[in-house]
Amino acid sequence: MRFLHTSDWQLGMPAAFLARYDDAVPAEFARARLDAVERLGEVAAERGCAFIVVAGDVFDSNSPDPQQLGRAVERLRGLPVPAYLLPGNHDSLDPSSVYRRPEFAGLAEHGVHVIRDSAPIEVAEGVQLVGAPFRSRTPAADPVAAALSGLDRPAGIRILVGHGQLEGFGGEALIDAGALAAAVAEGVVDYVALGDRHGTLEAAPRTWFSGSPEVTDFDDVEHDSGRVLVVDVAADAAGETTVAVEPVRVGRWAFRAIDADIASDADLDAFLARLAELPDKDRTVVKYSLRGEVTIGQKLRLDAALDRFRDLFACLYRRERTFDLAVVPGDGDLPDLGLTGVPARAAERLIAHAQSGSDGAETAARALRTLIRLAGKES
Ligand SMILES: [Mn+2]
């Protein structure tokens, strides 16, 4: 018996910060999240998965943008195998839940089912799903423990679908890891499909977080997202089961956080080479943080390169909070600008200002670069 485990689609995630340089990018990213749903459906069909479980946070909120909601429902209807959606903390089954909208009323006919309680669902012959839906954004008690209570060892295969952080993996734990491990060890459940963590993780035997199928955050906080899990559960004649899990990449975007210390031309070259080497730049978001000191010449070179890179990446921006790069005078520092007259005098003043280390130094360096460009002296 094979199925596909995914979670944390976070459809409708606004990501307005991506509009820094290009208004179209948030829409491209929203489209990528929907396309990931289409691709995971293709994986399910190609691998012969009997169904798909989405372990919470299908939507980023219970009030998604109407266009995003409409398009998401279309993608759900288009999935090639039945799908079971678990309400998580972002799309909990409270009175305002997205799953109470009319758009969801007829979806069961199209094989799209919302897990609204913890009653066992017979998804295939001898295969049972037990879900632990969120009824509010911050449940008072562990929904997984509640779903497990009173369950005995099943005759066939049982898959538990839950959402929330697990004890022992950082963050505020919601799920009692001990009770879950006991249920697995006793054969009450054969596999635990979890969501909430956006990176893929085998948290315990037969217990996995699938992670988001498309990236949601920078790689300094989110690791190994962009995957779905193809899960095989096999039962022998005595009813003993074995589980095999294969992560499959479906995500196409990347969010990179790059930090670098710059103290020499070599450091600057290395930073620029890291940017140059990143693949799929138009689907890559970069926030960079530089520390150290550069000469005027190095600053001009850096700014010129960043101007070019900004056109290539989906979004490239400076992380103000940790950016600390000072412009300092250096030997043989000043490039021969080849300027005369008023532009030359303006350049001299800007250079002095850029080297002063005062509050306006950064602005002066930028103005100097603009001046060089306007004078047509850029090499
Ligand atoms: Mn989530």
TrEMBL record:
InterPro entries: Calcineurin-like_PHP (IPR004843), DNA_Repair-Maintenance_Comp (IPR050535), Metallo-depent_PP-like (IPR029052), Mre11_N (IPR041796), UCP033093_metalloPase (IPR014577)
CDD domains listed in its UniProt record: MPP_Mre11_N
Keywords of the record: Exonuclease, Hydrolase, Nuclease
Residue ranges occupied by any Calcineurin-like phosphoesterase domain in the UniProt entry: 1-167
GO-annotated molecular function: exonuclease activity
Family to which the UniProt record says this protein belongs: Belongs to the SbcD family.
Name assigned to this protein: Nuclease SbcCD subunit D
The species this protein was found in: Corynebacterium sphenisci DSM 44792
Phylogenetic classification of the source organism: Bacteria, Bacillati, Actinomycetota, Actinomycetes, Mycobacteriales
